[in-house]
Specification:
The chain is of the alpha+beta class. The chain has 23 helices and 13 strands. The longest helix is centred in the first third of the chain and has 37 residues.
Length: 582
C-alpha cells in the first residue's frame, strides 16, 4: 500500500511539474517584447510595437489582459491534469484487474524481453553455448517468476502447477521451484474461510455452523489456485450415511476467484501475442476447460460419477475416489471424504530417504538430478543402476561401507524401483480405462492430484476440471492407439485414423502424421532416435516438416495424460509406450 501511494504521489508531482513548466513558457511568451533592430537575414525579427501606445500605457493594459488569460488557462490546465492524475490513481486503486495487470507486466515484462533478446542473440550459436547462457538465465529468473505466481495466485498458480508437472518441457530450475505451488501456496486467513463456510451453509442449506461441524482445523490441508481444503469433523446425522465416518475434507472457493481468472486470461492473451504466439489455441482450450472448475456442486457430481465408475471397474481394489456429501455442498463449498495418505511424489521421496538411511536432503538431491537429466534427455532406461550407484556413493561419504549396509540399501532401492514402476503402470491403466471405457477423466491431471494412501491404494482427487469424450472421439483415439500398438505399424492406417480423429497438417503427409501420432499417444523413442532430447524439441522439428493446422480438443487432453505418465516412467527409469497399456 505504501509503495502504491508513493508511486501515485510521484506521478502527481510529475504532472504538476509539467504544468509548472507550461506556466513558465506561457509567462515568457506573455512578456513585453522589445524591438530588435537588425539587418541580419538569419535572425527572426520581433514584432514592432507602436511606441506611442507603449508610452500611453495601452500596451501595459494589453499585457495585463494577456497575463489574466494566462492565469485562467494555466489554472484550468493545472486542475484538469490533477483531476486526470487523481482519477487514474483512484481507478488503479479501485480496480483489481488493472492492479494485477500492472503488477504482472512491470515484473514479467523485463523477463520476457530478456529471453526474447537472448533467443535472437543466440540464433547462430552452438548447443553447448546456448545451454550455458540459458542456464544462467533460468537461474536468474526462476525465483522472480515464482514470486509473481505466489503474489498474484489465481490463474498464475494454475499455470505454475501445469509447468511443474512437465520436467520434459520446462527447465529444471522452474520445475523445482514451481513444484511448491502444487498445493503449498499461502493459505487464506482461517477466520475468512470460516465466515465463507457459514455464509454457504446459511444461503444454501439454511443451517448454522454448530448444526453441522464439531470442529475444523485452522491449518489448510492444501491450498490451490481456486480454493483451499481443511480437515473437519461433522456431527450426526450428516455422517450416518457416509462411508468415511465423521471426518471430512472441506474445500472452500476463494472469494472472487472466478472473475479474477477471467481477467488473468486477458493478461495471458497479451503475453501470448508478445512472447508465445503459438500458445493461443492452447490458451483458448485451457480457458474453456478451466472455467468449469468454479462450481463445486458440479465437481461433487463428477466425483460421484468417477467414483461409481471406479467401484464398478477391475481397479476397485487398487484405487479410491473420495465420496462427496451432496447435502452439504454448494457452488462455493465441497464437503467430501477425507483420504488418509500423502501426495504420490512426497511418498516416493520419503521411501527413497528411508532406503538410503533416513537422509531426506540426499533423496531430494537425487530426484532433482533425475529431473535435470530428464530435461536434457539423459535419463537411463529400464533398471535401478543409477539409483543404486547414488546410494552407494552416499554410504561411502558417510563411512558406512560394510557389506550388510550395501546389501540392505540395494534391496530397499530395488523394492522402491519396482513399487514406483508398478504404481505408474497402475495409474496409466486406470486412466486408460477412464478414457476409453468411461469416457470421463481428470482434465487437470498432475502429481498433486494423486495420493499414496495408508491402506496401500492410490487416491485420485480433484475432479473440478473433468474432460468428457463423445463415443466417436473415444473410438477415434482408440483406433490411433491400436494402430500404434501393432508390431508392424502401417503409416497409411495411422494417418487415416489421425484424420478421422480431426488432425490436420499443412501438407497432409502420412509419414509426418504418423510421427505426430507416436509423439502424442505412444512414446518418446522416435524423438530420441532423431536426436531430439525432449518431446518439445521433436514437436518443433515436426512443425518444420509439416506444421499442424488443427489439433482436436480430445487429443490435447488425452496426449497430456500420455505425456504425464511417460515423464513419470522416465523418472523411474522405465520407458513407457502408452499404446501397450491402452
Amino acid at each position: 500500500m505504501i509503495v502504491r501511494q508513493r508511486r501515485s504521489a510521484i506521478a502527481l508531482r510529475f504532472v504538476l511539474l509539467l504544468c509548472t513548466a507550461d506556466l513558465l513558457i506561457m509567462w515568457v511568451d506573455a512578456l513585453p517584447r522589445v524591438p530588435v533592430a537588425t539587418t541580419s537575414p538569419y535572425l527572426t525579427r520581433r514584432p514592432h510595437y507602436d511606441q506611442r501606445s507603449f508610452r500611453s500605457g495601452k500596451h501595459n493594459q494589453d499585457h495585463k489582459s494577456r497575463l489574466n488569460r494566462v492565469f485562467r488557462t494555466t489554472e484550468r490546465r493545472l486542475w484538469g491534469a490533477a483531476a486526470i492524475t487523481l482519477s487514474a490513481r483512484g481507478l488503479i486503486q479501485s480496480s483489481e484487474p488493472i492492479r494485477r495487470a500492472l503488477y504482472f507486466w512491470t515484473r514479467a515484462g523485463p523477463i520476457v524481453v530478456h529471453y526474447r533478446f537472448t533467443q535472437w542473440w543466440l540464433r547462430n550459436s552452438d548447443k553447448e553455448h546456448r545451454n550455458e547462457v540459458y542456464g544462467r538465465l533460468h537461474d536468474r529468473y526462476c525465483e522472480p517468476s515464482l514470486e509473481i505466481v505466489l503474489h498474484l495466485q489465481g490463474l498464475f498458480t494454475k499455470i505454475g502447477q501445469v509447468l511443474s508437472a512437465r520436467p520434459d518441457f520446462v527447465p529444471t530450475q522452474y520445475v523445482e521451484l514451481f513444484a511448491t505451488v502444487q498445493d503449498d501456496i499461502p493459505q487464506w486467513p482461517y477466520d475468512e474461510v470460516e465466515e465463507l463456510v457459514r455464509e454457504s451453509l446459511r444461503a444454501t442449506q439454511g443451517l448454522e455452523w454448530d448444526d453441522v461441524f464439531e470442529s475444523m482445523d485452522a491449518t489448510a490441508l492444501g491450498c490451490a489456485s481456486i480454493g483451499q481444503c481443511h480437515k473437519a469433523v461433522i456431527k450426526s446425522p450428516w455422517g450416518d450415511n457416509y462411508d468415511g465416518g465423521n471426518t471430512v475434507a472441506v474445500k472452500i472457493m476463494h472469494p472472487d476467484a472466478e472473475s479474477r481468472f477471467q481477467h488473468d486470461f486477458q493478461v495471458f492473451r497479451w503475453l501470448c501475442r508478445v512472447a508465445l504466439p503459438g500458445w493461443k489455441p492452447i490458451l483458448n482450450e485451457l480457458q474453456t476447460q478451466m472455467m468449469t472448475e468454479f462450481d463445486y456442486q458440479l465437481e461433487a457430481e463428477n466425483l460421484d460419477e468417477v467414483r461409481g465408475n471406479m467401484l464398478a471397474s477391475p481397479y476397485a481394489k487398487y484405487v479410491t475416489v473420495p465420496q462427496p456429501l451432496h447435502e452439504l455442498c454448494s457452488k462455493n463449498m465441497l464437503v467430501m471424504e477425507m483420504l488418509k495418505g500423502k501426495k504420490f511424489g512426497d511418498a516416493i521421496e520419503d521411501r527413497l530417504s528411508d532406503a538410503i538411511g533416513g537422509n531426506p536432503e540426499a533423496a531430494k538431491d537425487f530426484l532433482r538430478k533425475k529431473r535435470a537429466a530428464l530435461v536434457m534427455g539423459e535419463v537411463s532406461d529400464g533398471d535401478a543402476t543409477d539409483l543404486i550407484a547414488h546410494g552407494t556413493a552416499l554410504l561411502e561419504r558417510e563411512g558406512r561401507t560394510s557389506l550388510l549396509s550395501r546389501v540392505s540399501m540395494a534391496y530397499k532401492l530395488l523394492a522402491l524401483h519396482r513399487h514406483v514402476n508398478r504404481s505408474v503402470q497402475l495409474m496409466l491403466d486406470v486412466h486408460g480405462h477412464q478414457i476409453f471405457s468411461n469416457r470421463i477423466f481428470n482434465g487437470d491431471c498432475h502429481p498433486g492430484n494423486m495420493m499414496e494412501l495408508t491402506n496401500g491404494k492410490i487416491g485420485l482427487i480433484d475432479y473440478g476440471q473433468t474432460k468428457r469424450l463423445s463415443k466417436q472421439e473415444s473410438l477415434s483415439i482408440a483406433r490411433v492407439v491400436s494402430e500404434l500398438g501393432k508390431l508392424s505399424v502401417d503409416e497409411t492406417k495411422v494417418a487415416i485414423a489421425m484424420r478421422e480423429l480431426g488432425f490436420k497438417t499443412k501438407f497432409d503427409k502420412d509419414s509426418v502424421l504418423t510421427k505426430y501420432a507416436r509423439l502424442f499417444f505412444d512414446s518418446d523413442d522416435e524423438a530420441k532416435a532423431e536426436g531430439c532430447a525432449t518431446p518439445q524439441l521433436y514437436l518443433l522439428k515436426l512443425s518444420t516438416m509439416d506444421p499442424l493446422v488443427i489439433v482436436p480438443d480430445a487429443a490435447v487432453f488425452t496426449a497430456r495424460m500420455s505425456f504425464l505418465f511417460r515423464g513419470m516412467g522416465a523418472m523411474a527409469g522405465d520407458p513407457i509406450h502408452t499404446s501397450k497399456y491402452w
